Amino acid sequence: MKLTNTTNKDSSTIESSVHSLSGFARSDTALSRFLDHWRAGTLPKKEWTHAAHVAVAASHLFDYPADEALQKIRAGIIHYNSCVGTANTDHSGYHETLTRFWTGLIADFLRTRALCSRLEFVRAALGRFGSDSTLFRSYYSFDVVKDIRARCQWIAPDLQPQAEAEA
User: Fold this and answer.
1) How many CA atoms lie within 13 Å of 158's alpha carbon, on the beta-carbon side?
2) 1-20 per-position pLDDT tens digit
């Protein structure tokens, strides 16, 4: 599902899509509870989905400047992985390029929306990116997921530009 609203706040479009969103996007309370569990490392591992990653990024980008949000997201993912037993190595766990790629896309999305609340922005970001976990493939000519260098350091897209990911 994609939201087509590009510049104006359209809460009816956002609200009509809530029924298909993850439970953490149903209310401010649910979103806060989800973020608290993620930060504490108590979010069940099976709930750490692509949509959950998008929600974490959107929440942080709404609350902080892009560079600070990226730092908090990076540290949070590494911490969360450690808490749930996912090793952060050259082959698993935290992935710098994908984290920066998605953070850049979502930051750009935030800049083009007139949304008043964190929940509203999270819902819009989920509507746009929450079900498209392979979007990065149209930006990279190689298997960025398995690339050890890309996991450890930022590699800019090589198929099409994405300047926002360099935040």
Assistant:
1) 9
2) 333 333 333 333 333 344 34
